[in-house]
Structures are given as C-alpha cells and as structure tokens.
Design a protein that fits this description.
There is one protein chain. The chain is an all-alpha fold and 233 residues long. The chain has one domain (3-100, 135-206). The protein has four helices and no strands. The chain has helices spanning 3-72, 79-92, 95-112, 119-206. Helix 1 packs across helix 2. The two termini are 29 Å apart.
Length: 233
Amino acid sequence: MPLAIVAAGLGAAGSIGGALISSSATNSAAQDAENAAAANNALEEQIYNSNKGLEDPYIQGGDAANTELQGFLGLGGDPAASQAAFQKYLNSTGYQFDLSSGSNAITGNKAASGLLDSGSTLKSLNAFGTGLGQQYGQQYVGNLQNLVTTGAGSANALAGEGLQYGSQVSSNNNNAATVAGNAAIANASSIDNLIGNAFKGAGYFGGSNGSSFGGGGSSGGGSDYNPFGGVGG
C-alpha cells in the first residue's frame, strides 16, 4: 500500500481521535461548571435560609409591635387589644409600686397637715396618678417603637440578603452557561475539523489524481499508459 494512503488513513484516524477527546473534555468541563453552579446555589440558599430564620422573629415582633402601637395611638389595629396589652404592661412593671408609694406619700403628708380628707388631697392624688400614667404610657410607646425599629431593620437586612442571594445565583448560573456555550462552540469546531479532515482523507484514497496502481487519466482505453504492457490503443 502506498505510503500516501497509509499517512492519509493515520491522519484521518488521528483527527477522529483528537475530535473525540476534545469533545469529551469540553463536555466534562461544561458538566463540572453546572455541578459547581448547583453546589454554589445550594450553599447560597442555605445561608439565606439561615439568616431568614435568625431575622424572622425580630420581623414578626416588629409587626406585632406596630399593630399594638397603631391601636394604642388610635391609628388602626385593635384599640381594645392594645389597651389590654398596655394594662398588662403596667401590671408587669414598676408602675403599681410607684403609684402605691407616691399615693401613700401624698396622703401621709396631707394627714400630717390635717388635710387628708380635703379636696387638695384628691387633686394631688389625681395629678400624681395622671402624670405617672403618662410617664409609663410614653415608656410603653417607646418600647413599642424600639421593637418596630428592630423589626424594620431586620426586614431591610433580609431584603438586602435576598438581593445578594439572587445576584450570586444569577452569577453562578451565568458562569455555567458561559462554560457550556464555549464547550458547544468547541465541539462544533471539532466536528467541522473532523469533517474537513475526512474529506481531505477521501481525496487521498480516490481523488482526481487517478489510480494508485498506475498513471493518471480515465480507466477506459485511449492513449494512457498501461502499466502491464505498452501504450493503450
């Protein structure tokens, strides 16, 4: 067999092998990128859900405090529930102690002055009780506002983390898509090269240069040289 045919065959085989190796490598790279993106997305989701779990109680507490505050100020919510919550707050703080101590001090002073049953005593008790109630009312409002602020801060933080989560997932997916796209282009290029080399090899085996067993020209008669005896006639 002529060396040209052997070389052409080896070249075609080498081209096919190289194309298959290249295709396998690019497909593997695309799969690796897809797996990495999926793993990164899972990690991002885990982090986001963990942060959400930590911040949700503060958000829920802020929402509840906002409802109570609106009701207490007469701006919505449930005023009756807010007043009940305020009374519960007074019973759980030092209000009752301060009210009792202050009232005893007033009545004691009035009694020492012989004015225990006077109108001034009642006026002093009413003024003291009203002032103390307003003081604790403002304190109650302030506490609710602090809860609302904390809840709003947690909600804003979670919203920012949600945007970051979405952005990172999009970036992971875009990177995987880019690798997959490049792999597809590389595979297409390998296939084009394979087809080109196949046609080139076919040219060596049966191209227009004639038979590999003799001179050029057609296979019929004529004046072409006959390798087995003289010139054809």
